Fold:
Amino acid sequence: SSAGAWEHSYSSFYSMPELPVDVLGQTMIDISSHEFFHIVTPLTISSKEIKEFNFNKTVLSKHLWLYEGSTEYDSHHAQVWGGLISPDEFLERLADKIKSSRTQYDDALAFTELSKESAGTHAKQYNNVYEKGALISACLDILLLEKSGLQYGFKNLKHDLGVKYGADKYFLDNDLFNEIEKLTWPEIKTFMLTYVQGSKPIPYEEYFGKAGVEYLAKETTNEFTLGASEFGRGETGEVTLMEESTFNSVGLALGYKKGDEIWKINDKEVSVTNFLKIREEYFASLKETDTMKVTVKRKDTNGKETILDLSVPAKKMPRTGEHILRWKTNATTEQIALKNKWLNINCK
Structure:
């Protein structure tokens, strides 16, 4: 079954799966935040293709980075700005978007071209508007703050575009970057021409580095493992084991089976909402001389459920992470000041 939401001029529509509130909670916050910000883009700021939409012939705008990408960015940035999520959580979300964008989609495809052909030639690339589209806005936010001496960010730009156009006036697709330059600086237009209209991948190390963030394309470390590289989510929010190809030597030693439900980690019950937190807390206190304990629920071919307490000596294994964002330990005073302004850290 599918799920999603739509924002209309005076209402929102949600189609969501039936899940416990604690499982659905953060998802609802993320989705409702995204849909709410559609009142800015494209319901207020948009091109002729949107304001005078052709229902008989597909004529799309070049600026999905604005309509969907910036809306997705705003939905997460508003949460860290308001203290609903931590700066670390926000950074992790951005890192996930980099990984998704660079491993699942064509990072060298010009975003304006993707947008124009998102219902045709590049339909399979469409969901990158929620990944790289949001990252474009994040980099623009940082660049605007740097150019303005921390006085003007991406939300200020969208405010000014909203004042200029409003709900009843449109911009011309080919004029938008020039109009943005008039409101900001030539460097902002250069960014748009290079990384939005152009095909160059964004150098994230450069732009996030301005805010004291380090970007690593790949890094190998020794870490504890629960025995699998990926976990699934069951129909009611339980954590499940996927294909046996995702098991490592620890998972094989534990005796994992495809379809097992991870019920407890060291006697603490887990679900998709607290799994990462409980796992991280457990690993933080675990030593290689300890015994790692995992309790699973397993069903046989008749559907009969058995609870199994599994254990194995705790073991660190090499883990290669990709597309990592983390705070620099040697950030400059200027970088820290930009980070604080970007994420509203000193105002909480």
Summary: The beta strands are 4-7, 12-15, 213-224, 231-233, 239-241, 261-265, 268-269, 291-299, 305-313, 316-327.
